[in-house]
C-alpha cells in the first residue's frame, strides 16, 4: 500500500513509464502534477490535502471548442455511460477522472486508473463533434 501523497503518486506514475513533473504549488493551492502519457499532456491535481496526505487526485485533459457551440447532447450521452466526467469550461471540452487516495493506494490501482482514463480520452477525442 502506497501513502496518499503527491510524491507517492508521482513515483508510481514514473515507475509505470510516464513523464511526471511535480509543480510547485502557489500559496494556498493544492499540489499538482503535469504528466506526459504518449501524445497527451495531462494535468493532475490533489484535493482534500492535510499534513501532506491527500484524499483524492484528479486527472484532466481539454480540447478547444473552436468556433462551434458545445454539443451538450454529446456531453450528456457521454456522462450517462462513462466512468469519466465530460464538461465544457471556458470554450473547451474537458474530460476528468478522480481516484480516491484516502487510506492509501496500490501502484496497480493507480496504473489501472490512468490506463482506463487514457482509453476514455482516446474514445472521447475520436467522438468529439
From TrEMBL:
InterPro entries: Put_sensory_transdc_reg_YbjN (IPR019660)
One Pfam match: YbjN
Superkingdom field: Bacteria
Protein name as catalogued: YbjN domain-containing protein
Amino acid at each position: 500500500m502506497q501513502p496518499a501523497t503527491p510524491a507517492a503518486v508521482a513515483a508510481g506514475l514514473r515507475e509505470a513509464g510516464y513523464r511526471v513533473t511535480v509543480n510547485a504549488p502557489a500559496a494556498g493551492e493544492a499540489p499538482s502534477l503535469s504528466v506526459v502519457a504518449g501524445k497527451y499532456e495531462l494535468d493532475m491535481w490533489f484535493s482534500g490535502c492535510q499534513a501532506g496526505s491527500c484524499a483524492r487526485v484528479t486527472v484532466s485533459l481539454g480540447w478547444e471548442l473552436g468556433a462551434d457551440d458545445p454539443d451538450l447532447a454529446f456531453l450528456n450521452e457521454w456522462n450517462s455511460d462513462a466512468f469519466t466526467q465530460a464538461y465544457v469550461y471556458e470554450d473547451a471540452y474537458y474530460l476528468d477522472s478522480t481516484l480516491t487516495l484516502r487510506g492509501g493506494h496500490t501502484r496497480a490501482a493507480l496504473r489501472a486508473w490512468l490506463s482506463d482514463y487514457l482509453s476514455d480520452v482516446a474514445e472521447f477525442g475520436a467522438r468529439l463533434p
